[in-house]
Amino acid sequence: MMFCTNFFAQGTSVTVHKDRVKFHDWNTSTSNIKVFLVDSKKNKTESIPIIGSFVKKDGDLIFTPKFSLLENVPYLLQTEKGDIGFSLKTSNNNVPIITAVYPTADEIPENLLRMYIQFSSPMKTVGNLEHIKLINEQGEEVKGAIFNNVYELWDDSQTQLTIIFDPARVKTGLRANETLGRALEPEKTFHLVIDELENIYGKKLAHPFTKTFKVVAEDIISPSPDSWEFMLPKSNDNKPLTINFLDAVDKMSLLIRIQIYNDKDQMVQGKIHLKNQEKTWEFVPENDWNKGKYLAKINSRLADPSGNNLNGLFDHTIGSLKNQREGEIVEIAFQIE
User: Fold this and answer.
1) Which domain holds residue 113?
2) How many domains does the chain have?
3) Strand pairing of 153-154 and 160-164?
4) Poorest-confidence range of 50-54, 69-73, 174-178, 296-300?
5) Does residue 92 lie in a domain region?
6) CATH number for the domain including 48?
7) Distances (CA, A) of 92 to 72, 96, 133, 203, 207
8) How far apart are CA 175 and CA 173, in angstroms?
9) 25 in the Ramachandran plot: left (φ > 0), alpha (ψ -120 to 50) or beta?
10) What pLDDT is attached to residue 169?
11) What global pTM score does this model have?
12) CA gap 22, 132 in Å, rounded
C-alpha cells in the first residue's frame, strides 16, 4: 500500500510516497543536496543520511530512496538555499499485522532451519524473540527451539524477521541434538505463536498470530537444478519466465540467488514472484524479452528451508560437499524464441 501527503515547506510543494519524494517546480541548484532522517534531539550533522538518487523531470526534483521511507518520522532535504522538512504520513492507525510466515506450507520438515515473519509496517528490532514461541500438541512451549540471537535478524526495511531453529539441535552429532533432540517431531502438530510485538510507532499487534503446521520427515535431499522445469516466455512480450521446483525452496534464496543474464552478459532487471508454497519462481522483466540466448545464474548457496543447498546437505559429513568453496555459480542456458 502506498501512502502520500502534500504540503508546503519553505515555499516548496512536496509530495511524499514510500518509494519517492517529489519537490515541485524546482528552480534551485541540485549540487550538494542531501536527505537526512532527523532526530529532533540531535543536530543535522548527527542525523542519519538517506541513500538515494536525484533526478529532474518536468521541472520537478524527484528523490528515489534506496529503501522505502518510514512513516511519521521527520526527514530533511539539505540545499544551498536552506532546508526543507517532510515526512510520510499514514492514513491508518499503524496497528501492525503479520502478512505472511515462510515457509507458507502447512507441512514442515523436522529439520527446518529458518522461518521468515513478514509484517505490514516497520517493527522495533529488539526484545521480540521472547514473544515468539513454539507450542506443542499439549499446549506447552518447546524451550530452546528458537535460537536466541544477540542481534535479531531484520531486513533493511524492518518488516521481515528471520528466526532460526537452533542449528545445534537440527544438526546431528552435536551435543544439543544428542541430549535434547530436534525441536520438531515428525507426525506431530505445532503452533508458532507470535504476540506483543511492537512497531516503530509504538503500536502492538492487535491480537496473537498463530501458524499451525504438521511436521513431516526430515528433508535430506539437496535442491538440484537438473530436476527444475523451465517454462519459457516468447520474445517481444514481458510474460514471466517460470521455474518449477520439485520441493519448496527458501524464500530469500529465491529472491536473491537466481539472476537472469542476456547474451551480452547483462543482468536482466525485473520482479520476482513466489507461488505454489515457494515451489514456483516467476520472473517478470521490466522490458519485453528479446529473442536470443540467456543464462540463469544460480548461486550454489541457494537452499531449501532446511538449509540444504546446491553444494550439499546442511547436515553433511566432512568431505561430502560438491565444492570446497561455497557460493560457486551454476549456469543454465536457455533460448527465447
Assistant:
1) 98-216
2) 3
3) antiparallel
4) 174-178
5) no
6) 2.60.40
7) 11, 10, 29, 12, 17
8) 7
9) left
10) 87
11) 0.73
12) 40
Long-range residue pairs from 241-247, CB within 8 A, at least 24 positions apart, any chain: 241/282, 241/283, 241/285, 241/289, 242/280, 242/281, 242/282, 242/283, 243/280, 243/281, 243/296, 244/276, 244/279, 244/280, 245/279, 245/280, 245/281, 246/279, 247/219, 247/221, 247/223, 247/279, 247/304
Question: Is residue 108 domain-shared with residue 190, that is, in the same domain?
Answer: yes
The pLDDT value given to residue 9: 43
Q: Model confidence over 153-170: pLDDT tens digits? A: 999 999 999 999 998 888
Count of C-beta atoms within a 10 Å radius of residue 304: 25
Instruction: Compute, in degrees rounded to 10, the torsion defined by CA atoms 10, 16, 22, 27.
Output: 0
Do both 208 and 251 map to the same domain? no
